[in-house]
Automatic annotation (TrEMBL):
Keywords for the protein's UniProt record, in alphabetical order: Coiled coil, Membrane, Transmembrane, Transmembrane helix
Presence of keyword ATP-binding: no
Stretches with biased composition (Acidic residues): 286-298
Coiled-coil annotated spans: 105-149
Originating species: marine sediment metagenome
Pfam families reported in the protein's UniProt record: HemX
Protein name: HemX protein
Positions of the UniProt region annotated as Disordered: 1-69, 273-298
Length: 298
């Protein structure tokens, strides 16, 4: 810019120096000056001298004109160089800007591609997770159904086991009751045998009475109505033992043996009646009592 201004200033100075004066700058000679002017005779020597003087006076401005033209040329060259430099710098900056834009666009495209790929990967993962969630839900449903079925089956099996256990316990209780009744009857039978042996073998009336009383007490504890007949027979024998003398011992032993046989044939509690074989005879209680009473009278 400075070179351009210097060239413009030099051209202006040159145009001013070369242009002739115009307008008010041109002064016309006055009448007085015209009147005072004397005629001059021009000789050849004067002409030659004037030409020499003119040539001497006109020669000096030439270096000024050539120097102005050189400055203008330099200024023009500098201006052109400045323009070229400006255009080059602008082109370079533009190229760099475009290159930077291309790089930014490439980076942006790469980022966009990466984001797109990430989005697709996320969608795939979402699909996989959705499928896994569906499988998990289905597995939970199947597991719930299986657990429910197993639970129902276990409850049903437990109920059956409880029912079977209850039946077994009932059978055990029945067996225990039967065993208790059987043991009690065996104990009564043993007491009657002891009473019979005391009377028949040892002649111990008192021992026989004690054995009969213990047997009657044990039958009372059982509380079986079917044993009332046996208790009645035992009561009759107790009365006869308390009233009889020593000579009646064989008859009393015989009657005690009959009572023992009657105890063996009595049914247990909660036990069905034993079938009686055809042709078998069982003496009636009244007949046995009459027989024992007759033996006591003898």
């Amino acid at each position: 810019n400075l070179n351009t201004e210097a060239a413009m200033t030099a051209d202006k100075d040159k145009s001013i120096s070369d242009s002739p004066p115009q307008g008010d700058d041109v002064q016309e000679p006055s009448s007085d000056s015209v009147q005072d002017v004397e005629p001059v005779v021009v000789t050849d020597d004067a002409v030659d001298g004037g030409d020499k003087a003119d040539s001497q006076t006109a020669a000096p401005p030439r270096p000024h004109t050539e120097s102005g033209r050189g400055v203008g040329t330099i200024a023009l060259i500098l201006a052109v160089v400045a323009c070229i430099a400006t255009v080059y710098m602008w082109y370079r900056f533009d190229v760099q800007a475009r290159h930077q834009q291309e790089i930014s666009a490439a980076n942006l495209a790469g980022d966009l591609k990466a984001v797109t790929e990430s989005a697709r990967a996320l969608e795939k993962q979402q699909d996989v997770l959705s499928a896994a969630q569906q499988k998990l839900d289905a597995s939970q449903d199947e597991l719930g159904k299986l657990i429910q079925e197993k639970l129902e089956s276990s409850v049903s099996t437990l109920r059956e086991q409880q029912e079977a256990l209850a039946g077994s316990v009932s059978k055990i209780y029945e067996s225990m009751d039967r065993s208790i009744d059987s043991w009690a009857l065996e104990e009564v039978e043993q007491l009657l045998r002891m009473a019979n042996q005391s009377v028949s073998l040892a002649g111990d009336i008192k021992g026989g009475i004690i054995g009969l009383e213990l047997a009657d007490k044990r039958l009372t504890e059982l509380g079986n109505p079917e044993l009332l007949e046996v208790r009645r027979l035992i009561a009759g024998e107790l009365g006869q033992l308390k009233a009889v003398n020593q000579a009646d011992l064989p008859g009393i032993a015989f009657r005690l043996a009959g009572i023992i046989a009657t105890v063996d044939k009595l049914p247990l509690v909660n036990e069905p009646d034993r079938p009686v074989a055809a042709g078998s005879s069982q003496p009636a209680p009244d007949a046995e009592e009459n027989m024992w009473m007759e033996a006591g009278q003898d």
